[in-house]
Structures are given as C-alpha cells and as structure tokens.
Design brief:
Elements (H helix, E strand, L loop, with lengths): L4 E4 L2 E4 L2 H10 L16 H16 L6 H11 L3 E7 L2 E6 L9 H19 L3 H8 L4
Antiparallel strand pairs: 1-2, 3-4
Helix pairs in contact: 2-3, 2-4
C-alpha cells in the first residue's frame, strides 16, 4: 500500500483523506513500520515532459511522442540491459512512471535530457520553453 505523507510542524502526517483512513484503520499502535521515502512526483513536471515529447514528434524528429520519450531515455542512459544469451543482449528503456521514479530522480532525468533536446531540435532552452506552452 502506498500512502502520501506531508511534514507539518516537524511531524509526518497523512496527506490525502485515503491516507488518513489507512493510517487510522490499518496502522496499529506500538508497531514499527518501514517506508521507503521518496518525494512524490510533480504532475505538472510530468505533463511538461510529455509536452516536450509531443513537440519533438511534431518537429518531425519522431513518429510519436513515445518514440521521442524512448530516444530521451536512451540518450540519458535511463535503460536496462537484458542479457539473452552469452553474446546477445538488448537495451530496453526504463519506465519513468509515478510508481518507479520519484520527483528527485525525475528532476535529475530532466536535467540530463535537456542538452539532447536542444541538440536534436537545433534551438536553445528559451525557444523550447516558449513553445511548450502550446503543448500543455
């Protein structure tokens, strides 16, 4: 089960009503629980990424935004290597969805892809930012 927490006055508290319900009904008193803490993804940043992929596809560099996304994952080395046999291996792009990548990781990923976007589109980041508004 995944719940969202927010720090208020130095105390971690459930964020959504469903999280409050879970803590009140499922978490037992005087029992230690372990959670992997990662910063929740910023939905607007996620939308901005897909807008960027649409922009790249619309510029004629890729057939689809998914192709652009795969390109960016490859260029940023956000991939898994799958060994099929001793001398045969494949490279597969990793997922960047909410379940597999927190905001800190996504921000680092974003920073690594921007130089590749600038190079591929032949423009600067200001041009990209100005055009993304039409894709959001």
């Amino acid at each position: 089960m995944k719940i969202y927490l927010i720090k208020r006055n130095g105390i971690l508290k459930p964020f959504y009503k469903s999280d409050i319900d879970y803590v009140e009904n499922k978490i037992k008193e005087n029992v230690a629980y372990s959670y992997d803490i990662k910063k929740a993804r910023n939905y607007k940043h996620h939308k901005k990424y897909w807008a960027l992929c649409r922009l790249m596809a619309d510029q004629g560099n890729f057939n689809t935004e998914e192709d652009a996304s795969d390109y960016l994952k490859f260029m940023s080395k956000n991939v898994d290597y799958i060994i099929v046999e001793d001398n045969i291996s494949y490279v597969k792009p990793k997922h960047i969805n909410y379940e597999t990548m927190g905001q800190d990781q996504f921000s680092a990923f974003w920073d690594t892809i921007i130089p590749h976007v600038v190079k591929k589109l032949g423009c600067d980041m200001g041009d990209i930012e100005n055009n993304l508004i039409f894709y959001l």
